[in-house]
Amino acid sequence: MIHPAGIATDDTDNIYVSSWHKLQKFTSSGELIKCIGRRGRKEGEFDDPRGVTLYDNQVYVCDCNNRRIQVFDPNLNFVRSIGSHGKGRGELDAPHDVKFDTARNMYVAEWGNRRVQVMDTSGQFIRVFGQEGEGKLCGPSGLHIADKYVYVSDWSGNCIVVYETSGQFVTSFGRRGQKEREFRGPYCITSCVDGFMHVCDFGNCRVQIF
């Protein structure tokens, strides 16, 4: 596996990983089930795939440099593509991560457009946030949704920015550095059943837990 960038698990503990222009499915013990993809722009091809998430029995993959979200069934058969290159509603630029809230809304962290865009599962625009004001983003790279809050890792801003699911800014924490609550390129965010949030602090080669 080269340059793994996104990971998700299904209800039976199968593991889905995006890597160097590929999407792979493994058992929980690490046995390869299926591998698809190569570098390209056609259906089922990728150019630097990033975040992966499972929702409603489908696999959503951020196809970063193709500026789209590709959707597959659990057997990695292509279902549809969401988005096209641009700055408008329903358009994408360098999507890095994708997550869903309990209302079936899809949130996409767009590095290129420096925003989080919210769409429905068909790709219809709902709203955007993070483009201005206190919660302005520089390079959103990771997403985590818990209850009514959206946590966004801002790689270029070296911080975590928190919003309500409505897009209303709540707070932010972090700055560039190597101490506690400081970052050098925060990336993926997740949480465990213990309620703690885990952040991949890429440049500092560590995971910080909050």
Which descriptors would you attach to this protein?
210 residues; mainly beta; 19 strands; globular
Please trace the helix and strand order, writing H or E for each element: EEEEEEEEEEEEEEEEEEE
Can you count the helices?
A: 0
Tell me the strand order in the biggest sheet. Answer: 1-2-3-4
Structural class: mainly beta
Largest sheet report:
4 strands, antiparallel
Taken from the alpha-carbon principal axes, the silhouette is globular
Rg over CA atoms: 16 Å
pLDDT below 50 for ≥5 consecutive residues: which ranges?
Answer: none
N- and C-termini, Cα separation: 30 Å
Portion of residues in beta strands equals: over 45%
Mean pLDDT: 95
Structure, explained:
This protein is mostly beta strands and 210 residues long. The protein contains no helices and 19 strands. The strands form five sheets. The protein has a four-stranded antiparallel β-sheet, with no helix packed on it. Strands 5-6-7-8 form a four-stranded antiparallel β-sheet, with no helix packed on it. Strands 9-10-11-12 form a four-stranded antiparallel β-sheet, with no helix packed on it. A hairpin with a 5-residue loop joins strand 17 and strand 18. The protein is globular. The model has no long low-confidence stretch (mean pLDDT 95).
